[in-house]
Design brief:
Elements: H1 4-7, H2 20-35, H3 51-57, E1 67-68, H4 74-83, H5 92-95, E2 108-109, H6 117-129, E3 135-136
Parallel strand pairs: 1-3, 2-3
Helix pairs in contact: 2-3
Length: 137
């Protein structure tokens, strides 16, 4: 789905399961894209207010395509991909009532690299053909 993030009904504003800084940052990010689509956006949040959650909701109502999440370490990547794991009911979108229909949860691909040329070819082919994947972590 090319416009998944714009077509999927995500409950963000008014969702008290989300933290207030997450809702406010999403609203400001959305407004920033309305005001000026071509500038870079930077969001800073203090420790403990839900950066992973903001990453999870940021593309909704904004992104026209897939999202690439780049992390500074393997530990953070594992934490984010665990929160984004839609195979469990403990994923962020279900736990925080952002996506109320389990059939509408985003498709997430956890990129773990490759260690052989055969694996590299499989991964690259998958990435090229992954039209139904919404997040790459």
């Amino acid at each position: 789905m090319d416009n998944y993030f714009k077509e999927t009904n995500a409950f963000i504003q008014g969702n008290t399961s989300l933290r207030a800084p997450q809702r406010k940052a999403h609203e400001r990010l959305k407004q920033s894209f309305i005001d000026n689509l071509s500038t870079h956006k930077i969001i800073t949040l203090p420790t403990g207010v839900g950066k992973t959650g903001l990453i999870a909701i940021a593309p909704f109502e904004i992104s026209d395509g897939r999202v690439l999440v780049i992390t500074p370490s393997l530990v953070i990547r594992e934490g984010i991909s665990d929160a984004f794991d839609t195979r469990t009911s403990f994923n962020f979108w279900t736990e925080r009532n952002v996506i109320l229909d389990d059939n509408k949860l985003p498709r997430v691909y956890r990129y773990a690299g490759f260690n052989s040329s055969g694996a590299r070819k499989r991964v690259m082919r998958y990435l090229e053909e992954a039209d139904d994947v919404n997040y790459f972590v």
